[in-house]
Design brief:
307 residues, alpha/beta, Rossmann fold, 8 strands, disordered N terminus, AB_hydrolase_fold, hydrolase, AB_hydrolase_1, FrsA_esterase, carboxylic ester hydrolase activity
Length: 307
């Protein structure tokens, strides 16, 4: 068994590694502690999760993006999440005029501690319980960011990749005040590409859980996936989106052509920005005041990546 002192040491090293990287001064990068309430067997208690904020120039108020990270396939790699500094993507959001907060959920990276969103065994996953736990961290980040003077509390967008997309769907089901949209990049849980490429654990259970989330979600959701996702195959995702719509969910699904060897990680690749950015802007344009981001050679770069 790994000792608590060793775990603390590992997370300290991860935080130190993040802090050794140059702070993105052009993005006004700031590390913050977000208070949240944990509901445990022995009652409630307060704790902090680590988050990073990024801001455009000026006083604001700016619409807010809450960006949620995924989960490494190997649990031992959770400390490597660090502060999840996907700077090219974050810079794109800031250039659009968004304030961005990136919370590190419990059990990961700079926050550390127990992974409260563990879904359990592959045969009998409890995706609803996992989503509930992940949602609490996302909602805490929303509440914290809405206290910042630079943030427009009435225009909040949840954005997440993989397990972070799932966490965003779960958080949206709580209908937090100010939420206007969700963007779900390759969201889901239970993928096992080494054993069953494209087929996650109990996809029907995930469909049921997503239907449960959708029944209390009041904002549109953009579902953005890729054909060669080795975690969640297109036909699986289509069944999830059908369950989402059947339960009253509103939004649209986009499935991109194959990207690289495994399209699941497309969002994390900087060269994919010209591919997903037009969909992102078009979806949010009626909902959020944004600037336009000029990206030179979008069409040519997208064609080169797809070919």
């Amino acid at each position: 068994m790994i000792s608590g002192a060793l775990i603390t040491s590992v997370f300290s090293l991860v935080q130190a590694a993040d802090e050794s990287q140059p702070i993105a001064t052009d993005l006004h990068e700031t590390v913050v502690k977000v208070p949240m309430t944990e509901h445990g067997f022995f009652g409630d208690h307060e704790r902090d999760i680590i988050a990073t904020t990024y801001m455009p120039d000026g006083p604001g108020p700016f619409p807010l993006i809450v960006l949620s990270h995924g989960s490494p396939p190997d649990p031992l790699d959770r400390p490597k999440v660090g502060r999840y500094r996907e700077l090219p993507q974050i810079r794109t959001f800031v250039e659009l005029g968004f304030a961005v907060i990136v919370p590190i959920r419990r059990g990961y990276g700079a926050t550390g501690g127990t992974d409260e969103e563990d879904a359990g065994s592959c045969r009998h996953p409890d995706y609803a319980a996992a989503g509930k736990q992940a949602a609490q961290d996302v909602l805490a980040a929303v509440a914290y960011a809405q206290t910042l003077p630079q943030v427009d509390r009435d225009h909040v967008v949840l954005v997440g990749q993989s397990a972070g997309g799932f966490a965003s769907l779960a958080a949206a089901s709580y209908a937090p005040k100010g939420l206007v949209a969700v963007v779900n990049f390759s969201g889901g849980r239970g993928g096992n590409p080494s054993k069953h490429p494209g087929m996650p654990c109990d996809p029907q259970q995930m469909a049921n859980t997503i239907g449960q989330f959708a029944s209390t979600t009041r904002v549109p959701v953009l579902w953005h996936y890729v054909q060669n996702d080795m975690y969640f195959a297109p036909e699986v995702v289509a069944s999830w989106f059908a369950a989402f719509q059947a339960a009253g969910g509103k939004g649209q699904m986009i499935v991109e052509p194959p990207f690289g060897k495994n399209g699941h990680g497309m969002f994390a690749v900087a060269t994919s920005i010209p591919i997903w950015l037009p969909h992102f802007e078009q979806f949010l344009a009626p909902l959020v005041p944004m600037k336009q981001v000029p990206v030179a050679g979008n069409d040519q770069l997208a064609r080169a990546i797809h070919s």
